[in-house]
């Protein structure tokens, strides 16, 4: 490979970087970005497809950058999706697991996996998938969704209308804020002291906790609906109870779920203005299930919106809801 530290890529190409890589900066419009952490071999780049202006690739002082010159990192989310941008790039990057990564996308999908360094993802309309990251993670989106599986580090999420889905979460802390985006969190049994703070304006929130769980719960909605699957928690103003779980405010007049589960060493604080909030029970662990796979026969929970029922009937999930209890 050439000793040059900068390349201009206007056609598909593969590059291998002999110099050490400690940080990764990616900014693309359209297409896909796939970042894989590995402990074997040098860092590499595979540009399989590109349309539009060339991508600039540079390696300087351990920082590997792949970006368009007119797409800065500062103020990235203020750029919005310019309709005049006619460009696409499909990029796969292999870097050392300890690499710190910054990935910014406009109308492009991003997948980041296997890193232990700090990861930051910014997206405007593209979706992001984060798998097996053990370092701190920050994800900021406008309308793109974020799906995270088996995260081991702290997670910070901000969005306007994008959704957050966490599967088999083991993060010690999650801080998530959105305006209208839904939040769905499936907490693994090994997350014994998780500190969860979730806040939306109109988005729904669903949290599936392991049973037994060790957490103090404080979930409130001003005008949304509530559901709860734990007998040890209290739903203020609930006309429902029993093994179906306690249901509050079927007419959407607000309420709160409070109480403690087990020996308190974790905390759940969930707040919404008009969105529904559901505190659900995770199915028992399946013996022999592969590590990182959600347990039980059900998938991750979805924010439930209970329908109005007669008092003699147990509450039923709407057709769009998955069976999670």
TrEMBL record:
Stretches the record annotates as Disordered: 281-325
Protein name: DUF4097 family beta strand repeat protein
The species this protein was found in: Streptomyces buecherae
């Amino acid at each position: 490979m050439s000793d040059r530290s900068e390349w201009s890529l206007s056609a598909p190409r593969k590059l291998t970087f002999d110099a050490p890589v400690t940080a990764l900066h990616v900014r693309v419009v359209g297409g896909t970005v796939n970042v894989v952490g590995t402990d074997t071999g040098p860092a590499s780049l595979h540009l399989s497809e590109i349309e539009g202006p060339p991508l600039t690739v540079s390696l300087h002082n351990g920082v590997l950058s792949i970006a368009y010159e007119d797409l800065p990192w500062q103020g990235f989310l203020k750029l919005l999706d310019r309709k005049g941008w006619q460009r696409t790039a499909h990029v796969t990057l292999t870097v050392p697991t300890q690499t710190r990564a910054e990935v910014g996308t406009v109308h492009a999908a991003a997948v980041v996996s296997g890193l232990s360094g700090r990861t930051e993802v910014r997206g405007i309309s593209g979706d992001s998938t984060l798998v097996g990251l053990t370092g701190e993670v920050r994800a900021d989106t406008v309308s793109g969704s974020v799906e995270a599986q088996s995260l081991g580090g702290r997670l910070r999420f901000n969005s306007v209308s994008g959704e957050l889905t966490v599967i088999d979460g083991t993060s010690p802390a999650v801080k998530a804020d959105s305006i209208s985006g839904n939040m769905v969190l499936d907490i693994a049994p090994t997350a014994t002291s998780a500190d969860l703070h979730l806040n939306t304006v109109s988005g729904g929130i669903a949290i599936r906790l392991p049973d037994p769980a060790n957490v103090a719960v404080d979930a409130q909605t001003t005008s949304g609906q509530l559901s709860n699957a734990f007998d040890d928690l209290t739903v203020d103003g609930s006309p429902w109870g029993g093994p179906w779980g306690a249901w509050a405010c079927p007419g959407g007049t607000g309420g709160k779920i409070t109480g403690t589960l087990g020996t308190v060493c974790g905390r759940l604080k969930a707040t919404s203005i008009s969105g529904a909030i559901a505190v659900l029970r995770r199915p028992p662990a399946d013996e022999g299930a592969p590590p990182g796979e959600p347990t039980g026969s059900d998938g991750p929970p979805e924010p439930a919106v209970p329908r109005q029922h007669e008092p003699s009937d147990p509450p039923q999930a709407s057709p769009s809801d998955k069976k999670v209890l």
